[in-house]
Amino acid sequence: xxxxxxxxxxxxxxxxxxxxxxxxxxxxxxxxxxxxxxxxxxxxxxxxxxxxxxxxxxxxxxxxxxxxxxxxxxxxxxxxxxxxxxxxxxxxxxxxxxxxxxxxxxxxxxxxxxxxxxxxxxxxxxxxxxxxxxxxxxxxxxxxxx
Length: 146
Hints:
Layout: H1 2-23, H2 29-47, H3 53-81, H4 83-112, H5 118-145
Helix pairs in contact: 1-2, 1-5, 2-3, 2-5, 3-4, 3-5, 4-5
């Protein structure tokens, strides 16, 4: 059951990453590194047992820090790309910030979860991170096409 659930999560992450990659073949090393870090962390978190909840929570905090760094990098990229890119990023920024808050809330739920909630909490956090990863990729594509 856990292996099939983990495979489902990994599949969702991989499909999201492929969609991001298809949208922009010109990703630089930092952008690719972001998705790789997210993917690796999600796989690792899904493997943690309830007894390792503290470690999973710490790794989730690291993922959110990586997301924050990527959002800052994306904002800087938009600022240097020109007025249209800045406008497009401003539109995307509210969505990205909302997704970031949602991921933080899901991480808090993961940290507070009991045995019976553990699997669901891991899945919910993974979904939130996958969603923000996809949104960042879409925002990056919008900025690059301007």
